[in-house]
Amino acid sequence: MKYNTVIFDLDGTLLDTLEDLTDSVNYALESMGYPTRTIDEVRNFVGNGVRKLIERAVPSDTEVADIDKTFEYFIEYYSEHNQDKTKPYEGVVELMGKLKENNIKMAIVSNKVHDAVLMLRDKFFVDVEVAIGDMPNMARKPEPDSCYKALELLGSDPKDACYVGDSEVDLETARNAGLDCISVLWGFREKDLLAENGAKTFAFTTEDVLKEVLG
Question: What are the catalytic residues?
Answer without folding.
Answer: 9
